[in-house]
Automatic annotation (TrEMBL):
Alphabetic keyword roster: Membrane, Transmembrane, Transmembrane helix
Any one GO CC term of the record: membrane
Subcellular location: Membrane
Transmembrane segments: 38-59, 74-92, 104-123, 156-189
Membrane topology of the entry: Multi-pass membrane protein
InterPro entries in the record: ICMT_MeTrfase, Metal_cation-efflux_comp
The keyword Transmembrane is annotated on this UniProt entry: yes
Primary localization: membrane
Source species, domain of life: Bacteria
Protein name: Mlr1600 protein
Originating species: Mesorhizobium japonicum (strain LMG 29417 / CECT 9101 / MAFF 303099) (Mesorhizobium loti (strain MAFF 303099))
Entry GO MF terms: protein C-terminal S-isoprenylcysteine carboxyl O-methyltransferase activity
Amino acid sequence: MKAGITIFLPEMELVPHCRRAGSLSLWRDTSEVLMRPATAIALLWLVWVVTWIAAAVWADPAQKRATIGAEVRYRVFWLAGTVLLFVPAHGYEGRLRLWTPSLAGAWACIALIAIGLIFSWWARIHLGRLWSASVTAKADHRIVDTGPYGLVRHPIYTGLLLALLATMAAKGTVWGIAGVALLTIGIVMKAKLEERFLRGELGPAYDDYARRVPMLVPFTPA
């Protein structure tokens, strides 16, 4: 009986101990994954994309649209740039990596990404139902020049550019730089297309707004 007890009791104590150790190990591994800068960056962009698409229903119908040809041109740059920027680079070391940010530097980039995405959301909420994914005019379209639109004429793009540049800095790769370059070209193309379209729809009122407020960079000459 003593031998049986001697063998049996440690087994009873070992099972809960193993379970606790396994749970702690799983929690630690999960925490390490979530605390990786690459994971944090991916989660920020994923949350932004999902919520941005989900909010598309919160918009008035368009009364007039830019031509398909005009839309396609900037979207090609967006697609190519997105593919290049978000090529996985975690753990990559080679000639196409130009720098490797420190852990503190990577988290600083993550903070800038979050600021940029939040700024873009502020602009979208402030614009309300006048927002559109493409270049359009809505019924009762008007100039919004308050909130973030008092700082720049295209605050959604300003926030996105900040987030994109910070993502590029965190990646430190040639294809990251190429991706942001293409995305920036596409964003500027769309912003200029919107301005031509809105000038045609809103006339001198938009010209006056453009003279007062800079296009993309706050606190710079308009």
